[in-house]
Every structure is written in C-alpha cells, then in structure tokens.
Write a structure and sequence with these properties.
3 domains; six-stranded mixed β-barrel; 31 helices; six-stranded mixed sheet; Barwin-like endoglucanases; Rossmann fold
Length: about 775
C-alpha cells in the first residue's frame, strides 16, 4: 500500500476536471497549528538536520557532504537555492534546506527494473508525490510499455534512437519542445540549447517562465540587463535593505546570515510581504556557535509592512511620492546629477507620482499613509539602498510594472552603479539564472544567434519559440508532439494541473531526465522515456577524467562544482552525455562534435567563451577562487537600452482589490518543501504540522463566513475567461494576513490557476493573484 496523505481528502473539481493526485507525506497524527514565535534557523534547524541525517542513514556521508557543499577546492554547489557562496570563506556556508536537498539526493534507496515490474503506472498514479520520490534514486533508462502499463528497461542506445527517430519523423521541428529546470549545469545547458537550435526550433520553455520572467523583462527594459546589479559585497555595504515578496528563511535560508550581519552593523531592514515570515523577525545562525550555545538571537528586520496581495506597486509609488514631496525642502532627497546624466523619463514619472492621490495609494496598497511614510523615511535616510524581491512581486498580472517601479525608486536617489546599492532579485533554483545566460531562451537575440552560428557552424532558427504556457497550449492543440523535460517535475510545477496533464498525455513522446521518480513520469505521452542522470553530489567520470560543471548564482557569480560520491548506479549518465546522446541520435549527420564535447567539459567551455558575452577566458577564470562575476554593463552605468540611459516607467496603478465576497489567493511553498519536492507535511515557520491541504485566512474573513480553525472549506477560482476551478475540503487556518487575502501551498493549489491566467506583460502564470471564493465545505454545510 502507498502512504495516505491528507491531500486524499481534497479533490479538484469543475468542468472536465479530474481529482488531483495526492501530494503530501502521509502523516499518521492529526494536523495541528501553533503560531511560530521562535527565531529562524537556530536549534530548530539543527534538530531538523539531525533527524534528516538519521532518517536517511547518512551519518557519515551526510556530514562529509555538508563540509564540501558550497566550498571551493573541489566542493559541489548546493542543488537547492541560488544564493551566492560566502565571499569571505569564513562560514560553514550551508542551510537546513540545502542539507535536506542533498541527503534526499544521496539516499541509499534505489528504483530499478524490479520496482517497475512490481508496480504499474496506473497503480503508481494513485501514490502521493512524497511516496514516489521517497522510493529512491532511478538506476537505469526505462521505456513505457502500453501493453503491460509498466515501465521496462531499455538500453541507452535504444532510448536515444527512439527519441531521434521520433524527432526526425516530425513534420516541423517546432512540434518539439525542450523544457529546462534550474538544476541543469551550464555546460549541459549550452549543449541542450545547441541541440534544439540545430534541430531547428527555439521552443525552449524553462522554469524562469513561471518565476522571474517579469524581473528579466523589466530590468532589460529599464537598464538594458535582465539581471540584478548588486552582489554580496553590496549587501555588506548597504545602509538599507528592502526585502519584498520572499520567505527567505525557507527559500534562501543563507540570506539570514546577511540579514543578521546587516542588523548588527546598524543597517535598516524593511520586509514587505502580506505574511510576516520567519526571516522577518529574528534568527540564530547555526554556524555562529557562540550564539547557538547561548541561544542568542539577532533581529533580521527593523520594519515589517504587510500590503495586500498585489499591493506592492502602490506601496512603492507612495514611497516615491513621499520622496518627491520631501525634495521641496531637502535638495538632497533626489540625486539630480545622477538623474540628469543617466536617466530618461524622469519628468513624466514625477508628474505621475504627484497626480496619484494618497487615497488611491492607500486603497490599493492596503497600508496607511503613515506606514508608507515610515518606509519612505528609511529610504531617504539611507545613502545606499538595495531592493530585493522574489515571486511575491513577479507572479502577478502587473509583475513587470512592479519591478520597473522598484527601479524607478532606485533611480531617484542614484542607487545604481555604486557600492551598497542596486536591484537584487532572489532567484530560486540553483542554476536557473545560468540556464538563461547560457542560451535557454525562447526569445533569443539576433546577437546571440549570430555568435552561436559563427562558433558552432549551424544556422539557428530566428523565429521566437514557445514559453511554458504556450507549450502547454500547443500540446493541447496537437501542435507540440514531443516534450523533453531536462530535470524538474513539469507536470506538477505548471499551472492548471488537469489541463497540463491532458497536454502531456496528448504527446507522441515524452522524455524526462531525472534523478528520482516523480509525477511527470506517470503523466506521459503515448511513448515515454525515463532517463536517469547523475546528481550534483556524484562524481562525473568521462574520458578526460573527473569532470566539473559550472553554475551561476543569483548575483551573476560563476563557479565550478565537483561531485564527491560514487554514482548511485553504474548505468547513470551525466546530463551533458545524455544531451549528446539525444543530439547524435536526432542529428546523425551533424558536424557538431557531440561525443568530443562530452570527453572533456573544458571543450564545451571553450566554445561557450566564443558565444556568451562575459564568458571570455572561461576555463581560466572559472578556476579562480570563487570563480568570476559576469560583467554587468548597468553596474558600470552603461545602459544597453534604446535611449542609452536608464529609463523611468510611468505605468498606472493596477486595481488589485478583491471584488465583494471574493478573496485574492497567493500560492507559496512550505518550509519542508523544495519546489515540487515535499519532505513532509510540516511547515515549521508557520506552525503547521501534518497538513498541506489548508488555506491561510484573515480571522475577520473567516468570521464573516462563519468559519473556525480547521473547518473544511471549498475554494473556487474564477479565471479571466469566466471558467471556474475548485478544491474541496481544505482546512481553514486563521493567520496574520491582510483582510481580503488568502494563501495556500503549491503544487496542490496550481489547479486553481487557469492556463489563461497569465500576465499579459510577462506570460507568467499569476499564481500569486488568484481570485477565489471560499465557503464552508458543501458536505459539511449540508450536514448542519
């Protein structure tokens, strides 16, 4: 029997919608909720790590891995978040979630042919997602056998040939799509996009399409670069840090060290989030042993503001309005010299701010003028400010406009191109930014394609390809017939879960390159391959010796990662080797030296140096201590925009207020979760145990609906096109969240985000701004 999850009690309904699969980790005890009032990290994290190491029986290799993770001299990069490595080398640069992620990969459990012979796909489809991944590491390539409804072993050569034959038989190369998750190293990424483009398509959807696409488009438009300009040295020099829409204690836990250090030196730290998260109060950093011994916590904020969901842009506009008002009496409130020399659009933006009333700002933001002025004063008083943000800002219809409003505010005081200042988006998965840098982009520039053509001797297609949402829609229409997932769990990460499932099942062939069994292997096309790859902790032996791969963190630092463990199976291939095998089978006459590249990854890097701007002398520079930082023209006040200047934007404020009787719901991750991988049904920093099928609600909103703690509710979302989606029997939890707002966990709640509910500015699914009604569970109401 497979584990039973509380998610079994909840269904997803609506027109043409089938019940969703179970997701959680099957707790045996009833759910509990007790608000969390302790410091982040500290002994809670230490106890959690100890339990993980004991549960996975990694009391020897686990600590060895901890000492090698995120360190130079042969260390491997954490496969979790993209927070930069400690630049001083003084800290044990690890976190609780990173250790969970590594031990999850290092498990001794194995999923081989015997497992698949014992369990049909139909049976496995009834298992929880936790149960699927908990079976262990995949050990050999498998192919789906429709006659028996089982996966069966297949030789690597035959697996590659199945892919190659299917792709060659397509009427159009654009009938295939090549998805990338953030775990793929730079070298494999470069080969992957090269294969897709040599095959003739720019259909390269990636996880950025669902998380930070808005950031890239906004920064590109405003500054001429799709990335942040601040680095860790800037964080150490900033007078004020504004942290927006991110639960750093879970999503980027190593940021806690930077926040604690900032507080100790007297910096102001403003957290802006509808929920006051664990990182926004206090922390005990585990590698600070004296503080651990004395249980001495350090504050990680000086001000917490809770705007309504989607109200960040109005808050920023209010701060800018306050800066303009103050400039009448203080000529230093604005950096006029910087504005005159380096920007355009200033007067239009000033007029917009002055024309926007405080009543409108307060109404849209959900905060009082007095609270907004507190944040504005922090900004005015600081000589050097950094704004950092994550998906709480981007996964909205107006995500691009909000990020541009961040840039507007930074430009007013010249907080760009100098130490301790600038925009600093927090990327999620460890190499998601590197994927985009190294060519995973469905909208490539002509400059990139010209350099790729010159260096690799191919004629890449010029027409833009499909992003994630458009790929799913194309699968539904039958226009995409082959889907390749390079890492990740696409079926569960994407929006509108039943719609995505149907699209995948309509494909002629689905290929998943993975380390562990997950839902995407069970939601497959008429033909399906599972191709198991090495994990980042494992040694990668090739003809040229043990290989290293490079990754790029969220602050544009590129460094090497070298695995330390013997591979989980002798039949695993590296990601570059898998890409090369697929490419050779699909392009048998290709002049690209695929096999030669795989023998020695330095050869891949030499070609990358010819193609990628900022990667010159790649092989030498990446071996420097801490690697190298990709050059950022905007950091040097060189703006590759149409005007040649940093550009203010003048977008109107969106109306983010919920209609009467509705709420705005945002999806989020629990603490014991990494993307779609769920370690347990607990969420320590929010005080939840043994429950994932829940919805956090404001107490007044609950009272208005006659709801008490743990009452079951039905959640119905209304899409832009008027269709509805629902989740039934979720449990209501009273929480400190603004009136009119609600929150719950992804991927369970992805079903509520219709495929058409994506931003017209970025095409990102608006998973942080779902319009819902929440009422007492129908069966419970009927029984009253």
């Amino acid at each position: 029997m497979s584990p039973v999850s509380p998610s079994d009690k909840a269904g997803a309904g609506g027109e043409d919608h089938q019940p969703e699969p179970r997701v959680g980790a099957a707790p045996e005890d009833p759910p509990t909720f007790r608000p969390y009032h302790h410091p982040a990290a500290g002994w809670g994290a230490a106890r959690s790590v100890s339990r993980v190491l004991m549960r996975d029986r990694e009391l020897v290799d686990g600590p060895r891995a901890i000492m090698r993770m995120n360190h130079e001299n042969g260390g491997f990069d954490c496969p979790g978040c993209a927070w930069p490595d400690d630049i001083k080398g003084l800290h044990l640069d690890i976190c609780e979630n990173g250790i969970k992620h590594v031990t999850w990969e290092m498990t001794r459990k194995r999923v081989g042919r015997e497992f698949f012979a014992a369990h049909s796909v139909t049976e496995l489809s009834r298992w929880s997602d936790f149960a699927l991944e908990d079976q262990g590491r995949l050990t050999e390539p498998m192919v789906y056998d429709p006659a028996s409804d089982h996966y069966v072993p297949i030789r690597w050569k035959d697996a590659f040939e199945l892919f190659g034959r299917t792709v060659r038989e397509l009427d159009d190369p654009n009938q295939a799509a090549y998805y990338t998750s953030g775990r793929l190293g730079n070298e494999a990424t470069f080969l992957y996009q090269l294969m897709a483009r040599e095959l003739g398509t720019n259909n390269l959807p990636d996880c950025s399409n669902m998380c930070h696409e808005a950031s890239g488009r906004a920064l590109q438009a405003a500054l001429g670069t799709g990335k942040g300009t601040a680095d860790l040295k800037d964080w150490e020099a900033a007078d004020a840090l504004f942290i927006m829409g991110v639960n750093a204690a879970s999503n980027a836990p190593r940021m806690l060290t930077a926040l604690a250090d900032a507080y100790r030196r007297g910096a102001q730290i403003v957290h802006i989030n509808p929920l006051v998260e664990g990182a926004a109060t206090r922390t005990i950093v585990p590698h600070e042993f004296t503080d651990m011994a004395l249980m001495k916590s350090t504050r990680t904020s000086t001000l917490n503001l809770q705007p309504r969901i989607g109200g960040d842009m109005a808050l920023l506009r209010g701060m800018a309005k306050a800066v303009f008002a103050h400039s009448g009496s203080d000529p230093k409130a604005l950096d006029s010299e910087f504005i005159d020399r380096h920007t355009t659009g200033f007067e239009e933006y000033r007029a917009l701010c002055e024309a926007t009333s405080w009543a409108q700002i307060e109404e849209q933001c959900g905060l009082s003028r007095a609270d907004i002025l507190k944040a504005a004063q922090v900004y005015r008083d600081a000589d050097r400010s950094i704004f950092s943000w994550c998906l709480g800002v981007t996964q909205h219809e107006h995500g691009v406009d909000t990020v541009r409003e961040i840039v507007n505010l930074l430009l007013l005081r010249g907080n760009l191109g100098r130490e301790g200042a600038g925009p600093s988006p927090v990327r999620g998965h460890s190499n998601v930014q590197g994927n985009r840098t190294c060519g995973i982009d469905h909208r490539p520039t002509d400059v990139f394609l010209d350099r790729l053509a010159a260096a690799c001797g191919i004629q890449p297609p010029r027409a833009h390809g499909l992003d994630t949402v458009r790929t799913i829609e194309a699968m539904h229409r039958g226009d995409v017939k082959v889907f390749v997932g390079m890492g990740g769990n696409f079926a569960m990460a994407a929006p509108d879960t039943p719609y995505t499932f149907a699209g995948l099942r309509g494909c002629d062939l689905t290929v998943q390159v993975s380390t562990k069994l997950n839902r995407s292997h069970l939601v497959h096309g008429r033909q399906a391959l599972i191709l198991p790859c090495l994990g980042r902790t494992e040694k990668d032996h090739q003809a040229g010796g043990v290989q290293s791969t490079s990754v790029e963190d969220s602050m544009s630092m590129v460094h090497l990662s070298v695995g330390m463990k013997r591979p989980a199976s002798p039949h695993l291939l590296s990601e570059p080797a898998i890409v090369a095998g697929l490419a050779r089978a699909a392009l048998p006459d290709s002049a690209t030296a695929w096999e030669w590249y795989v023998e020695d990854y330095d050869r891949v890097r030499d070609t990358m140096a010819q193609v990628l701007d900022g990667f010159e002398d790649f092989n030498r520079r990446v071996r420097l201590p801490l690697g190298f930082r990709i050059k950022q023209p905007a950091r040097e006040l060189v703006f590759l925009t149409e005007s040649g200047r940093a550009e203010f934007s003048a977008a109107p404020l969106p109306d983010v207020r919920p209609a009467p009787g509705t709420l705005v719901l945002g999806t989020l991750r629990s603490h014991d979760q990494w993307n779609t991988t769920i370690y347990s049904d607990d969420d320590r920093y929010r005080g939840i145990r043994n429950l994932r099928t829940l919805v956090f609600m404001n107490r007044d909103d609950m009272r208005e609906r006659g709801l008490a703690e743990f009452d079951p509710v039905d959640i119905v979302s209304t899409a832009k096109d008027g269709t509805t989606r629902r989740l039934d029997g979720y449990l209501a939890i009273p929480y400190d969240i603004p009136r009119g707002c609600a929150a719950g966990y992804m991927p369970e709640m992805n079903v509520l985000c219709a495929i058409g509910d994506h931003s017209t500015q970025s095409d990102q699914p608006i998973m942080k701004h779902l319009k819902v009604t929440i009422d007492r569970h129908a069966r419970t109401e009927a029984a009253r």
